[in-house]
Design brief:
The complex is a heterotrimer of chains A (about 375), B (about 425) and C (about 400). Chain A has about 375 residues and is mainly α. Chain A folds into 2 domains: about 300 residues, ABC transporter involved in vitamin B12 uptake, BtuC (Orthogonal Bundle), CATH 1.10.3470; about 70 residues, no CATH class. Chain A has a two-stranded antiparallel sheet with strand order 1-4. Chain B folds into 2 domains: about 80 residues; about 350 residues, ABC transporter involved in vitamin B12 uptake, BtuC. In chain B, helix 4 runs antiparallel to helix 10 and helix 6 packs parallel to helix 8. Chain C is built from 13 helices and 14 strands. Classes of the chains: A mainly alpha (about 375), B mainly alpha (about 425), C alpha/beta (about 400). Chains in contact: A-B, A-C, B-C. Chains A and B meet through helix 3, helix 4, helix 13 and helix 15 of A and helix 8, helix 14 and helix 16 of B.
């Protein structure tokens, strides 16, 4: 039982990481719009979806004309991202801007509009697809190059196992010690005790490694597919690019200025409307690319595919601290891994009583937990509510 | 002309006449959608316009208690429509307490509907035998009324359980969290078929017991109207729903004017100020949440009995959104608005969109050719994805966007809300 | 221009209202969504039968029409459609549904209004085990199909460690349980039994498989899930033999799974068209009219509609009026037909007296596969019972 859990650990974490990169890219869209407008852009999940569908159409239409799958993928990413960006800007122009112009103080009004836009877009895409193909489920074609599977060295898996065990043991030990201290009436953990816990958990990890060396250093069957590698590489490049854009360019500075204080920024000669459009464009493009990568990974896309990843990405954004770009990326990765861990291990831990179907609940539970106990997220700073 | 329209006597005459004409037309053509809509239009006009109260009651009573039931005998779809409208109206009134009065955006409202529906579905079918001893299930139909009360309590409890963490959060976070919790209830309903089979999972529960109606059939027998069971049930549910709507509306009006109602509105207007005035925030919000939930729970039990079938699919996000659209359309905080919104959306969704689909289908099957001289179109080429009935999300989305942009206060605005929505920053 | 518009409106109105005595047969099956490929076949099969019979009914003074309905493979939608259908007096009978899980709650509504339903595709035992007078079916049952599949898997293919996945619908879970029961009886080991509603991402499930190392995977469900599962299994290097029930019986299965479909098995109650000698003429007609070959349930949709039509014809030519729904229900139960799927006759529960079951092997990734085993089996005489 424990052996199975340990053996699966590297595969599970790897799958989670790949999924996490997709979440991270969607989460950025939520976080950027929230940072600038303080609006939960509920329609972002549909922006992601339109990118995924546009990508599928590109793949299907150009499959015969463009024989090289890598060029095809690049085209799909460009077109998917562009379509999503256009949809994002249109939503902003047609649904959100009129509300800003009117200057509604009620916070619920923009949110309700966003939900409306989300539902409208779902069926709009369905209508277009339906009229076009007489079916609204689209599948990404498969290419042998993308499906090629590579076996990763067992040593990598072993290292992942050991690191994870160490972290898990440390967290458990820390909690146990903290509770013990709280029970005996003192609070906090001293630096010396903390170091002791580090070492103790390391020893424990090594002990497990020695006792269960057959599993830990055995054949772990850790494989990765070409398309997963592509997803990781592309999303990493995108995240890095965004980081550069936000921190090193004039546009990035302007975006951050508007996020901090739109009124003051406009006094400095920045047109908030232009910046908001740019924000939607960037967030939309990232969401669209995430859609294409999602489709590449999981093949099936349809007009309602955005809802669940959207909610999860929002959870990731909150997890990382909404409004915080690095936080959103990190939140996505953490959420992806947690989800995959929960989805796989729940069955083993409950002996089949609860299965993978609870993995969606897990994301919601994390969302509620974070909002209640640490609303600023992992990376966010404490912000007082504006009155 | 304008003066004439302001004359109460003339208006009264006009409404009475149109009610009679349209009502008669509906009785002659019970399957005509147009006649049905016009009859309802007369009802709405009677309610909205400035005419004597006795006439309002007379027109309303005649249409709801005489015309619709009599037409319904020839076309039982009218009952189906009436019952669904009633169920949604009661739920819209419940959500109105939460969203309209207390200003808490609840996107998981269908969860309480689910709790109510499953409460009766589990015990009113053989399902409960799966996890309870004695093998006495299904309970006899007469227990239905008791379980409606149980459903109210269960839904209110769920409201408290869901609300106590969620209501600590600020407006937009609350919306997302309620959405998540609502989905959680659905996922649980979907998966609690193992290890213990509580809900039978996605396969749902069927058949479900209905309240006994022999007395009801007997009652009509005395007046010389003989009905079979299949005919009597729709009529029975129709009257039951009318009674419930009456009760729910009364409760709503009383609540609106009570201490709690004013506290809710105070919270909606300004949370900080309300707290400064000594209103305990969380308990007051929880009360609103539980009250709204209990309405939904009662209707859930009724839905289970009416539908004979309950599955998690009936309680998806789109249901919650649909009820929200009703409240938004009618006007947040407005009681007649919620009822009107519910009627509009239900009739649109259950009847009009489907009728349009059927009509297009007929044209397609018949290969009808529309010839306008320069423009020729053969309906046989109409893509069969073009079915209005399948685009309810689009319709709801459009209603939400347009209402928020052009008329956020709704069709029949509540007076205080109107002022707030029009307020400039 | 304006005048033309008015004329058009009038014509539209006239078309809808000015029809004499209309008799409608409704098909209810998924026409949109992922299972549309199977649902469409039911509709087209019934459409062909109805169009062939229209002339005869015209002579008797009736207009026979098809009313195709979409249940979206969703029980909730199915019940809503049923509630609408029963209030339309022109509709006299139903051909449907595709999914057992949709058929059961919907037929509770039909039963209330005594509206006859003839099922061309529902294999779940509970459909007829409730012994409703108004519900008949033309296809075999899962309490034969599942065990037949299990026997083939264990005896012929030598499966030892079986991992069973189902889609959590009445149909998928039902047949998976039947399969498991027989497989255990035959001495195979069932290393996993799990339900999932997932449609695109099966990674978590596949990781479980990796841990359990099965040599045989059975999927109880429909092709839209099964094909994706199979494809992802193969991508992740799980080489176990794959098998499923009649839900996989569609060209879409091969289309989605691609090369992964090679070597897979499925059992079905509606064999490939070349298994039915009488269906040849019908298949040609079908292909000419709709531009595609009839698959899986198309011939069963055709025969289902023909049973109804035969009963209707008998009644109308004798009584010179349209039958009430109750009359038609009684009549259908007693009707026998030499259909394209063979001799059709119903037993006291509404099951077909003798139904065929096939085991099909996809030797190449091409539909339809090769039939490796055919059995004819009478409907099991299970007692009437309400569902649990």
């Amino acid at each position: 039982m424990l052996e199975v859990l340990i053996q699966l650990l590297p595969s599970v974490l790897l799958e989670g990481l790949i999924l996490g990169f997709v979440y991270a890219m969607i989460a950025l869209g939520y976080t950027m719009v929230y940072g600038v407008l303080e609006l939960i852009n509920f329609a972002h999940s549909e922006i992601f979806m339109s990118g995924a569908v546009a990508g599928a159409e590109t793949f299907i239409l150009l499959k015969a004309a463009v024989p090289n799958p890598f060029i095809l993928l690049a085209l799909a990413i460009l077109i998917g991202g562009a379509v999503a960006a256009i949809v994002a800007i249109l939503v902003e122009r047609l649904a959100y801007r009129p509300l800003r112009r009117r200057g509604t103080t009620n916070r619920l009004v923009p949110l309700i509009t966003a939900i409306g836009a989300s539902f409208f877009l779902q069926d709009l895409v369905r209508l277009i697809e339906g009229l076009w193909h007489n079916a609204f489920y689209r599948r990404y074609p498969s290419f042998e190059v993308f499906e090629a599977t590579y076996t990763l060295p067992n040593l990598l898996g072993s290292v992942i196992i050991l690191l994870t065990l160490w972290i898990v043991f440390w967290v458990l030990a820390y909690f146990a010690y903290w509770i013990y201290r709280a029970a005996t009436g003192t609070k906090g953990v001293s630096r010396r005790a903390s170091r002791g816990l580090w070492i103790a958990s390391l020893v424990l990890t090594l002990l497990v490694a020695v006792i269960d060396r057959g599993t830990v250093f055995g054949d772990l069957g850790l494989t990765i597919q070409m398309k997963s590698i592509l997803v990781v590489v592309i999303s990493f490049a995108m995240l890095y690019g965004l980081n550069w854009l936000v921190h090193k360019t004039k546009l990035g500075i302007a975006i951050r200025a508007v996020a901090q204080d739109a009124q003051t920024a406009s006094l400095m000669g920045i047109d908030p409307d232009v910046i908001i459009t740019y924000t939607f464009l960037i967030g939309g493009f990232l969401g669209g690319v995430a859609g294409v990568l999602f489709g590449l990974l999981y093949t099936l896309v349809h007009p309602y595919v955005g809802f669940i990843p959207g909610i999860k990405a929002f959870t990731a954004a909150v997890l990382g601290g909404i409004g915080n770009i690095t936080g959103a990326a990190l939140g996505g990765l953490v959420l992806g891994m947690l989800e995959m861990l929960g989805g796989t291990y729940l069955t083993f831990l409950t002996n089949g009583a609860m299965g993978t179907e609870y993995k969606d609940i897990l994301a919601f539970a994390i969302l509620i937990f974070i909002l209640l106990f640490r609303p600023q997220g992992i990376m966010g700073e404490q912000v007082g509510e504006k009155v | 002309m304008k003066k004439l329209l302001q004359n109460s006597a003339f208006l009264s005459l006009l409404i009475a006449l149109s009610a009679i004409i349209f009502g008669y037309w509906l009785l002659q053509n019970p399957r005509s959608t147009l006649a049905f809509l016009l009859t309802l239009g007369a009802l709405l006009a009677a309610f909205m316009l400035d005419i004597p109260r006795w006439l309002k009651v007379l027109v309303g009573g005649a249409i709801l208690l005489l015309v619709v039931p009599m037409a319904g005998f020839k076309n039982s779809f009218l009952f189906e429509l009436g019952v669904q409208t009633g169920i949604y109206a009661a739920m819209a009134l419940g959500l109105n307490v939460v969203v309209g009065l207390a200003g808490l955006l609840d996107l998981g409202y269908a969860a309480f509907f689910a709790v109510g529906a499953y409460t009766w579905a589990i015990f009113g079918s053989k399902q409960a035998n799966q996890f309870m001893p004695w093998h006495i299930f299904p309970l006899p139909g007469a227990y239905f009324y008791l379980f409606m009360l149980v459903a109210v309590v269960m839904a209110a409890l769920t409201g408290v359980v869901i609300g106590s963490p969620a209501l600590r959060l600020r407006g937009d976070y609350l919306a997302i969290v309620t959405l998540g919790l609502g989905e959680m209830v659905r996922v649980l309903a979907n998966n609690l078929d193992h290890p213990v089979n509580l809900t039978n999972g996605p396969q749902g529960i069927t058949p479900i017991q209905r309240p006994p109606i022999d007395w009801f059939i007997g009652l009509f027998d005395r007046f010389g109207i003989h009905m079979s069971r299949a005919e009597a049930y729709p009529l029975f549910f129709y009257f039951l729903v009318l009674v419930i709507i009456g009760i729910v509306t009364l409760v709503n009006i009383r609540l609106d004017r009570s201490r709690f109602g004013r506290a809710w509105i105070a919270i909606r207007e300004d949370e900080v100020a309300a707290r400064a005035m000594g209103i305990p925030l969380l308990p007051t919000k929880l009360l609103a949440f539980a009250t709204g939930a209990s309405f939904s729970g009662a209707m859930g039990a009724l839905f289970a009995a009416k539908q004979l079938y309950v599955s998690p699919e009936s309680f998806t996000l789109i249901q919650s959104i649909m009820i929200l659209v009703m409240v938004i359309l009618g006007g947040m905080g407005s009681i007649p608005g919620a009822i009107l919104g519910a009627a509009t959306v239900t009739i649109l969704n259950v009847d009009l969109l489907k009728t349009a689909s059927d009509y297009l289908n007929d044209l397609r099957n018949a290969g009808f050719v529309l010839d306008l001289g320069i423009f020729k179109y053969n309906f046989a080429n109409l893509p069969n994805q073009l079915e209005p009935a399948k685009y309810e999300r689009m319709v709801f989305g459009l209603i939400m966007i347009l209402m928020m942009i052009y008329r956020p206060e709704g069709i029949i605005p509540e007076r205080r809300h109107l002022a707030e929505m029009k307020e400039k920053a | 221009m304006k005048k033309a518009l008015w004329l058009a409106v009038l014509a539209l109105g006239a078309l809808a209202f000015a029809q004499g005595k209309v008799i409608k047969i409704a098909t209810v099956s998924p026409l949109s969504g992922e299972q549309a490929a199977l649902g469409e076949m039911i509709k087209l099969g019934a459409q062909l039968a109805i169009e062939e019979a229209q002339a005869d009914f015209e002579k008797m003074g009736f207009k026979l029409e098809l009313a195709p309905q979409d249940d979206q493979a969703n029980p909730d939608v199915g019940v809503a459609v049923a509630r609408r259908l029963v209030t339309d007096p022109e509709i006299v009978a139903i051909v449907g549904h595709l999914n057992t899980g949709v058929a059961i709650p919907s037929s509770e509504v039909y039963k209330d209004y005594q509206l006859p339903m003839v099922s061309p595709a529902n294999t779940g035992p509970a459909v007829t085990d409730r012994c409703y007078l108004d519900i008949d079916r033309l296809v075999g049952r899962d309490d034969v199909q599942g065990p037949a599949g299990a026997t083939f898997a264990v005896k012929t293919l030598g499966a030892k460690r079986i991992f069973i996945v189902h889609d959590k619908t009445t149909y998928g879970q039902g047949i998976a349980e039947q399969f498991r029961k027989r497989a255990l009886e035959l001495g195979a080991q069932v290393v996993g039994f799990t339900g999932t509603e997932e449609k695109s991402n099966f990674q978590a499930l596949i990781l479980q498989m990796k841990a359990k190392r099965p040599d045989f995977v059975y999927f109880g469900g429909i092709y839209n899930q099964g094909a994706v599962l199979l494809k992802q299994m193969r991508e992740r290097g799980i080489k176990a033999t794959f098998m499923g029930p009649d839900g996989l019986d569609s060209s879409k299965f091969v289309e989605i799974a691609g090369q992964a479909a090679k070597g897979a098995y499925y059992t079905t109650v509606a064999g490939p068209i070349d298994q039915y000698p009488k269906a040849k003429a019908m298949a040609e007609k079908f292909e000419k009219k709709f531009g595609k070959a009839p698959e899986s349930f198309a011939i069963y949709g055709y025969d289902s509609a023909n049973v109804i039509i035969k009963a209707l014809k008998n009644f109308v030519s004798y009584a010179h009026r349209a039958p009430t729904r109750a009359e038609l229900s009684m009549l259908i139960r007693q009707t026998t037909l030499e259909g394209v799927t063979g001799h059709v006759a119903f037993d006291y529960k509404g099951d077909r007296k003798e139904a065929d079951y096939f085991v099909v092997h996809l030797e190449e990734a091409k539909y339809p596969g090769k039939v490796v085993k055919v059995i004819s089996f009478p409907a099991p005489a299970t007692p009437c019972k309400a569902i649990k």
